Amino acid sequence: MIVKHSSEWYHKKETPIWQSFLNKLTSDAPEWREYCESYLDKMVWMQDASKLKLGSSLWHMHPVMFLGSFIRESKITKEMLRKIWTDSVRVSDALLSAVAEELNASFERCKINTSNRLNHFIAQVFQ
Questions:
Q1: To 5 degrees, how large is the angle CA 74–CA 76–CA 78?
Q2: In whole angstroms, what is the distance from residue 48 CA to residue 13 CA?
Q3: Which domain of life is it from (predicted)?
Q4: Global pTM value
């Protein structure tokens, strides 16, 4: 998953985004407010890097999930093939299942066995 949202490295403790949290700490856990303010002061650096023109919102990704998308096993399915051959009268589900099985067996022998490799192969086919 890749999302764009406000970075905790941008907003200082005085900004409204943190003030609502810090004000709640004042009443609910006052002993934590000073610690959190100190933590926030140490985390903020993006405004000091003004030459980069980053802004407060950045693209974020989960690195493990991102890398996992490259190594996850991927197979051709009947549903994928149905998007290509939409006429179910002329091309049966049984035929598509048989084609998917044959393709997957061939792809496995050729080590086309991850999402990245499969996408690369399909992209070459469509060129």
A1: 140
A2: 15
A3: Bacteria
A4: 0.45
